[in-house]
């Protein structure tokens, strides 16, 4: 509903004689465009020249981080899949072959065509395993090709590792239990506060 | 064989072939230039990938035009649909026949006109052919069996009819002043100090402006491209066209621009004369340049003429990327309430001057100035009308921003 106080009355600008003759104004316009003919061009020759980009917070293609031993850092907690507003993440969790965690993703697929690159997965991830990279120029010949599986996402990590190093490499490094049986649950919470673990 | 080309008939045929080649190339490069100018005006670089500076772009465009799928919709009037682009292009090209390019040249002892057809009614021919251009547009719009195309065609018709009148009046001023209908004689009149010896641009600047504006409208260029107005009519009469048929419309537009530019150069800018009043100076080299029948002088004259044409083509593009499109009522108002009265005043003035036997004196530009002053005075005195508002309807109440 528009209130009367919101209404602003604007009179049409009164045209001068030169304005109404139109031609003088045309000449003014031509002068402006003529100046632009010789101005410095703003074009960037894209594939050869690239604009400097903000690596830290650019939301491009995803990657799955590896820990320092080269294993996938994901613990298959399904937080990202739950947070994803576009439902583009599909995870199948399985029992981890490594003793320092319970689960790891057997399958980890992201449909890059469905994704809206909002970064919610990155926010949700408790172990900083999924991250968005500054990589934006990806192509594929089919829709199937644009569904990135675990291997491809890990490869993205290798490709962008120098450009954007992993923020916190030792996030899953609670190696209190190498070899032995899985401790009771109260010990587990203690383990989470093991040295090297950042306080969240 | 050489003997054949030293007679006017053979020479005309040779000239036709050469000119056709030059003009087709020029038209193709006009499209590149248009894109370049557009880019420069907008602080961009423009096409530069095909060849150095994008110079092979016309070739790429041509190949693309030829290889694209040529769609003919089911409900179109097929013969007319196919005919329309051909008419648009042909009509734009045949105008070149009467343009005098470079005076006379002596070949094998014969004095030849550097002109494909030197006819008595050259000016009328050019006018007639120019008016035919609307057929391509109208037939294209009608045959497409599409509402938008049809609107475009209707607009084109109304626009061309309206702008033919000031165009005719501006040309009539030149005809009255020079007393010639042959284009080569009009150029000679402007060069020869014994006849006129002054460019019509200096005698009748207002007629020049009228002609320039109408030529924009005749060539369907912005700000008068209402016939194809993308934002309102998709592509206007071009909507249903694809591949080379659309290419022909495009090329026709640029060919029309070149013809019109040559036409203006001949009528108002002294054709192949380097600068106005050069005939009065009596310098040897300038007289040689203006009248010598040698091949070198002929080529130089041709270059001068080409330079003037190029300037106008650049001007067309420059204006296109500066001024937004008119609204249709503004278009009509400009023609009927602005340019037609001005043109009539000019013709009356020129008639008076010719009657008094002084068509090429300083009274001509003075009269032009008086007409402009009268129009300006009228613009200042009259109550400004709000254009585009339906004043006969009761005002709408309850809307924000209305009173």
Order of helices and strands of chain A: HHEHEEHEEHH
Shape designation of chain B: globular
How much β-strand is present in the residues of chain B? under 5%
Number of strands of chain A: 5
Biggest interface goes to: A-B, 29 and 24 residues
The profile of the biggest β sheet of chain A is: 3 strands, antiparallel
Mean pLDDT of chain B: 83
Question: How would you describe this protein?
Answer:
The complex is a heterodimer of chains A (200) and B (403). Chain A has six helices and five strands. With 200 residues, chain A is of the alpha+beta class. In chain A, the strands form two sheets. Chain A has a three-stranded antiparallel sheet. A two-stranded antiparallel ribbon of chain A has the order 1-4. Chain A has helices at residues 17-21, 23-37, 79-83, 120-124, 150-160, 185-192; strands at 62-64, 89-95, 103-111, 130-132, 147-148. In chain A, a hairpin with a 7-residue loop joins strand 2 and strand 3 (103-111). Chain A is elongated, with a radius of gyration of 28 Å. In chain B, strand 1 (104-107) and strand 2 (110-113) form a beta hairpin. Chain B is 65% helix and 2% strand. Chain B has one domain (2-381). Chain B has 403 residues and is mostly helical. The model of chain B has no long low-confidence stretch (mean pLDDT 83). In chain B, strands 1-2 form a two-stranded antiparallel ribbon. Chain B has 16 helices and two strands. In chain B, helix 2 crosses helix 3 (57-67), helix 4 runs parallel beside helix 11 (243-268) and helix 11 (243-268) packs across helix 14.
């Amino acid at each position: 509903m528009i209130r009367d106080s919101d209404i602003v009355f604007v009179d049409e600008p009164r045209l001068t004689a030169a304005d109404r003759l139109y031609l003088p104004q045309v000449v003014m316009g031509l002068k402006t465009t003529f100046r632009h003919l010789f101005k410095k061009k703003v074009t960037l020759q894209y594939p050869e020249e690239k604009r400097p980009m903000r690596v830290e917070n650019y939301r491009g293609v995803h990657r799955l981080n590896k820990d320092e031993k080269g294993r996938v850092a994901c613990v298959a907690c399904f937080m990202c899949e739950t947070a994803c507003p576009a439902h583009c993440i599909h995870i199948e969790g399985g029992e981890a072959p490594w003793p320092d965690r319970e689960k790891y993703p057997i399958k980890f697929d992201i449909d890059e065509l469905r994704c809206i690159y909002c970064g919610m997965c990155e926010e949700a991830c408790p172990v900083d395993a999924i991250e968005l990279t500054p990589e934006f120029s990806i192509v594929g010949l089919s829709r199937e090709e644009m569904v990135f599986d675990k291997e491809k996402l890990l490869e993205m990590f290798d490709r962008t590792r120098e450009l954007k190093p992993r923020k916190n490499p030792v996030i899953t490094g609670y190696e209190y239990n190498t070899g032995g049986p899985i401790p009771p649950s109260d010990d587990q919470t203690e383990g989470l506060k093991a040295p090297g673990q950042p306080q969240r | 064989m050489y003997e054949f080309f030293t007679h006017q008939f053979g020479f005309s045929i040779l000239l036709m072939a050469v000119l056709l080649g030059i003009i087709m190339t020029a038209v193709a490069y006009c499209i590149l230039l248009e894109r370049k100018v557009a880019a420069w005006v907008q602080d961009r670089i423009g096409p530069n990938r095909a060849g150095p500076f994008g110079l092979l772009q016309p070739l790429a465009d041509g190949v693309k035009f030829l290889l694209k799928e040529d769609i003919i919709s089911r409900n179109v009037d097929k013969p007319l649909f196919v005919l329309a682009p051909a008419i648009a292009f042909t009509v734009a090209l045949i105008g070149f026949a009467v343009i005098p390019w470079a005076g006379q040249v002596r070949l094998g002892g014969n004095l030849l006109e550097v002109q494909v057809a030197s006819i008595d009614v050259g000016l009328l021919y050019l006018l007639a052919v120019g008016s035919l251009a609307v057929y391509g547009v109208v037939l294209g719009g009608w045959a497409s069996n599409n509402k938008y195309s049809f609107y475009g065609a209707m607009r084109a018709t109304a626009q061309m009819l309206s702008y033919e009148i000031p165009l005719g009046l501006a040309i009539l001023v030149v005809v009255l002043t020079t007393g010639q209908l042959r284009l080569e004689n009009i150029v000679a009149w402007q060069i020869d100090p014994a006849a006129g010896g002054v460019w019509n641009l200096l005698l009748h600047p207002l007629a020049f402006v009228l002609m320039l504006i109408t030529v924009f409208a005749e060539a369907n260029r912005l700000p008068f491209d209402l016939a194809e107005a993308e934002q309102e009519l998709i592509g206007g009469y071009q909507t249903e066209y694809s591949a080379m048929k659309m290419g022909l419309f495009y090329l026709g537009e640029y060919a029309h621009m070149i013809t019109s530019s040559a036409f203006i150069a001949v009528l108002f800018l002294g054709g192949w004369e380097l600068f106005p009043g050069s005939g009065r100076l009596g310098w040897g080299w300038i007289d040689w340049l203006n009248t010598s029948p040698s091949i070198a002088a002929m080529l130089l004259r041709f270059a001068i003429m080409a330079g003037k044409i190029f300037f106008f083509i650049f001007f067309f593009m420059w204006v296109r990327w500066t001024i937004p499109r008119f609204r249709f009522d503004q278009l009509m108002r400009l023609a009927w309430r602005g340019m037609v009265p001005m043109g009539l005043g000019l013709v009356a003035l020129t008639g008076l001057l010719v009657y008094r036997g002084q068509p090429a004196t300083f009274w001509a530009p003075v009269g032009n100035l008086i007409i402009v002053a009268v129009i300006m005075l009228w613009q200042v005195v009259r109550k400004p009308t709000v254009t585009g508002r339906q004043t006969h309807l009761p005002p709408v109440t309850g809307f924000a921003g209305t009173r």
